[in-house]
Write a structure and sequence with these properties.
This protein is α/β, with parallel strands linked by helices and about 280 residues long. About 35% of the residues lie in helices and about 20% in strands. It is built from eleven helices and 13 strands. It is globular.
Length: about 280
């Protein structure tokens, strides 16, 4: 069965490039809408069908997808959360914000509203895991290093905090060391969270990064993601490892990440939060 034309709404990071390559390898028709200030400047060239838009130019984006006869849409890559004053929205975007209201402007609220808006245009919104399922984090220990008893205790504490953080639609990640919460993720993102926690680390066993999908988070948007930079920052900040939501989060260049962890005495473990929240 022939796959329908795919629209790729591309933010930052390497996954948009991976998805473009996948479409090229499979011979799937696609069109890229690259978000200025977010997508890498070398993401596309003249050989790749694309357009660049500001984050406030939803009207242009919808028009181009209609002109290109896009059927399915994947939103992938990091998007820096703009303030309303930064948007300078076109009419279509202004109407969108007026409709959803200010109360929807949480991390996920605005994205869920955008999915509904895309669907109202007759588009089918897909998750990257539906197109590239191999990116999903597997369950269990992924490298040769395993968490010890203290690390598992820190993971449990991290799960409890990260779950509540996500329930409030704030962030996906928390850093815990020896039972103490060194930091929780806000608008700055996971990399900066890890780096600032370096200033608060205590003597003894290093901390753990716990990264979970939010309880009400749509699997099609903004899934938790780790990659080589996550592990590099973890090492530089004195962390011992990373626990990430198995089947609900992405790992970019899995083998490269595992190799780095193996060489630097870091663990990576795919976890089911329910297993930790049900413990005494």
């Amino acid at each position: 069965m022939e796959e329908k034309k795919l629209g790729i709404i591309a933010g930052g990071g390497s996954i948009p490039q991976m998805l473009i390559k996948r479409c090229q390898e499979q011979g799937r028709d696609f069109f890229v809408i690259a978000i200025e200030g977010n997508a890498s400047e070398d993401l596309v060239d003249s050989s790749i069908p694309h357009c660049w838009i500001r984050i406030g130019q939803a009207g242009t984006g919808f028009k181009k997808m209609a002109e290109e006869k896009v059927h399915d849409v994947v939103m992938i890559g990091t998007i820096k959360r703009p303030s309303l004053s930064d948007l300078v929205p076109d009419f279509r975007t202004a109407a969108f914000f007026a409709k959803i209201g200010m109360k929807s402007l949480g991390d996920d609220g605005i994205l869920r509203a955008l999915v509904k808006e895309l669907e109202s245009e007759g588009l089918i919104v897909k998750g990257i895991h539906e197109v590239m399922p191999e990116l999903l984090v597997k369950s269990g220990v992924l490298g040769k290093h395993k968490p010890d008893k203290q690390a598992y205790a820190d993971i449990k504490r991290g799960v409890e905090v990260a779950w509540e953080l996500g329930r409030l639609d704030v962030g996906q990640s928390v850093v815990v060391q020896q039972g103490l919460v060194l930091g929780v993720e806000g608008i700055e993102g996971t990399d900066r969270l890890i780096m600032r926690c370096k200033d608060y680390k205590r003597k003894g066993d290093g901390g753990v990064l716990v990264k979970l999908r939010k309880p009400e988070q749509d699997m099609r948007i903004d899934l938790p993601t780790i990659g080589i930079r996550t592990l590099e920052n973890a090492k530089n900040s004195g962390l011992r490892g990373v626990a990430v939501h198995c089947g609900n989060a992405l790992i970019v260049n899995e083998q490269e990440v595992i190799d780095y962890a193996n060489k630097n005495n870091l663990f990576i473990v795919g976890i089911n939060p329910a297993d930790y929240m049900n413990q005494n």
